[in-house]
Structure formats: C-alpha cells, structure tokens
Design brief:
The chain has about 400 residues and is an alpha+beta fold. Helix content is about 45%, strand content about 15%. The strands form four sheets. A three-stranded antiparallel β-sheet has the order 1-2-3. It has a three-stranded antiparallel β-sheet with strand order 4-5-8. β2 and β3 form a beta hairpin. α3 (about 55-65) crosses α6 and α9 (about 185-195) packs antiparallel against α11. It is elongated and about 115 Å long.
Length: about 400
C-alpha cells in the first residue's frame, strides 16, 4: 500500500492549529483556504483549482436557452417532455462521460414501460440535438469530442404507434345530425368538414369564413404553453390554405347569430381571445360524454371519513385528429386526386398524403374482400338448405 504524502509539510501551520494553503481563481487571483486536517485541505484546494466537469444538465440548459425557446410552439410542445426526462436522468452526469450504451439503456427502459416508438424516437432526437448544439459551442466544444447519441438506435421492443383510423360511419352520421344541438357539436362538425388540425380550427376567426365564396381560410394555429393560449403560424407553410365550405357546415354557421370579423369562431368569455386550454378540454369531454364517445372505468374507493364510494374515470374514444382523418376519408371517397388532397389537408410532403390514401385504399380492399367472403358463404348456405317439395 503506497504511503500517503506528507500533507502537513505542504502547508503552513497557523497559531490556531489550522493548516493554510492557497489557490488561484480563473483570473489568477490568489485566495487562502484553511483546515485542521492537511489531507482534507489538500483535497479542497484541488477542487478549487480544477473546474467542475461540464454536466449534461449544463449543455441541456444552454440548448434550451439558445434553441428550444426559439422553436415553434408546436415543436416546443413535442420536445418539452423529452427534455424534462433527459435532464432528470442525466442532468448530473458529466457530458463527456455519457456513453451510447447508457443512452440506449435509457431508451430501452422507456420502451419496456410502454412508450410508443414515436415517443422513444423523439427522446433520442432531443438528446442528439442537445449534444449537436454543445459541440459547436466555442466553450463546450473544447470539452466534448463527439455526440454519443449518434451511435444509438431505437430499441426493438419499442411498440409501434397504433394507426389512427377515420371514425366509423355511424359516428360521422351522429356528428352531422347533432352538430347544432349537441354541446360543442359545431366544433366536431367543423373538424370533420374542413380537415383542420385542432389548433388550426381554434385559430379561425369569423373573418376567415367567407359565406359568399363558400370558403374557410386557415392562417394560423392556437398552441398552449403552460395552459396559456397563443396564436402562432401553422405547423408548416403548407398549413396556410383555403378549403371549400361544405354544405352541412355552411348551414350550421348561417344559423348562428352575427359576429364581429375579429371574433374567434370558438372562444370563451372573451370572443377576441382564443379558447383557453382548460375550457377546450372541458368542452370536448362534455361533448364526448353527451354523444357516448367515451369508455368508462369504475373502482371502489374509500374516503377520508371511511365511506366507500364508486369513482368513475372517463376516457374519450374520439379525438380531434381522428376527425381530420374523417375528412381525408371524405376526400378519398369523393375521388379527389392526391395533389389536391395534399393542399386541402395542408401536408408539406406528398408522401404523407400518399400514406393516408394507401391506408384508406387497403381498408377499402379489406372491406370488399370481406363482403365477397360473406356473399359466397351466404350462397353456400342457401344451396345447402333443402328445398321444400311442392304439394
């Protein structure tokens, strides 16, 4: 076992029994430090002169200030939770020591906890972007040499997202029939008849509805940040579009009282302000409950007074985005060509529209095959049934 250095000989012993040493700060200024234990004094002086290791939390904070805060609200909403998770897990780790296997293990834990592949991929993207920003920083780049997230792939166990499908015909019929009578029913009809995303629909003002030309314009999107609503640009430049005002929606809008051009089509108490998030969620849940678009799960609970009661949770089975798929189905069934559909849906990439149309075509083919099989089975049953003899 190696002998300890004579720490007591390295420093000055003061009259009060403490050892005194010196350290220099970044500007070269000398400072005194005292301790009764010379070995502990030596360790403390080393810590003072050696700057703390650059942590993942530090480069994440720099990315948040330099990049994250300047992203579009929708993108910030997507990146917010992955950023929070990454800092919670890796915040105190030295950024230069974080390895690809550690990141992969973190993603694997998310996958085994039931997170979808899309969520896991988003988590990896955020970590990769944090390191990418740090590597080009003139200070951080001196300590970091590579991006460990570049070598990481998505774990196989990450479950694939369930393909969103359009609402069933019976649901569409109910939405159309009760658009003017159901609470918040106009919002559901609006999504189904325009294909707008939720935020795009909430950003529509009356001036964007042209009853003469029978069109509705999409010019922006409402995004929520910490519960506060703000109107910003659409998801992409392609999101700015004009769609036809379909007859059922036109009829419902004409039946409403007159409004000022600057009033929001869907608003709270203030018609000039976008609908608050808490109000939207309450109204959508109210609508889904009234229409029967919910699943319930009940359990017996005990109150603080010892009384047993039944608690019921409601989960909506219809989402605003599903109604956007309903509009895409309407375009497909009406024979609207793919490039026109791309423009009406506000897709930036024709590949996205092709994917939607391909999925709809496959559904249609499966339904046709199902009808064929049922037809043949009915014919077989009819031929096997003995005919009654005459007389």
């Amino acid at each position: 076992m190696p002998k300890k250095p004579p720490y007591e000989k390295l420093y000055t012993l003061r009259a009060d029994g403490r050892y005194q040493g010196y350290w220099k700060d970044a500007e070269g200024k000398r400072h005194a430090l005292c301790d009764r234990d010379p070995e502990r004094l030596h360790r403390r002086l080393q810590e003072k002169e050696q700057p703390p290791a650059l942590t993942f939390g530090s480069i994440a904070a720099a990315w948040e200030t330099g990049v994250f805060e300047h992203l579009k609200p929708g993108t910030r909403a997507c990146y917010s939770k992955p950023l929070e998770r990454a800092v919670e897990v890796f915040g105190a780790r030295p950024a230069s020591e974080l390895s690809a296997p550690e990141i992969y293990a973190f993603l694997s834990r998310l996958a085994t906890q039931g997170y979808a592949a899309k969520t896991v991929k988003m988590q990896l993207t955020v970590i990769r972007l944090i390191y990418k920003h740090a590597l080009i920083d003139p200070v951080f780049g001196e300590e970091l040499r590579f991006n460990p997230a570049d070598a990481v792939t998505i774990p196989r166990e990450a479950k694939k997202a369930v393909q969103r499908t359009a609402p069933e015909d019976v649901v569409v019929a109910a939405i159309r029939a009760q658009a003017s009578t159901a609470y918040f029913g106009l919002f559901a009809l609006f999504l189904l008849s325009t294909g707008f995303r939720r935020g795009e629909a909430l950003a529509v003002r009356w001036k964007h509805v042209d009853l003469k030309r029978k069109t509705v314009s999409c010019t922006g999107s409402v995004n929520y940040r910490s519960g506060r609503a703000e109107v910003s640009d659409t998801k992409t430049a392609a999101g700015v579009r004009v769609v036809p005002l379909l007859p059922d929606l036109e009829e419902a809008l004409r039946a409403l009282p007159a409004h000022e051009p600057e009033d929001f089509l869907f608003s709270g108490e203030d018609p000039r302000a976008p609908l608050p998030e808490v109000t939207f969620r309450r109204r959508w849940m109210h609508y889904c409950k009234d229409m029967g678009f919910v699943e319930t799960e009940s359990e017996i609970r005990t109150s603080s007074q010892g009384r047993r009661y039944t608690h019921t949770d409601f989960k909506t089975t219809l989402t605003p985005h599903v109604l956007r798929h309903g509009y895409a189905t309407l375009l497909y069934e009406a024979g609207v060509d793919m490039y026109t559909a791309q423009r009406l849906l506000g897709h930036a990439d024709i590949q996205t529209t092709m994917t939607v149309y391909t999925h709809l075509r496959e559904r249609q083919e499966q339904a046709s095959v199902g009808r064929l099989i049922s037809h043949v089975q009915d014919a077989m049953t009819a031929s096997a049934t003995p005919k009654k003899s005459a007389g």
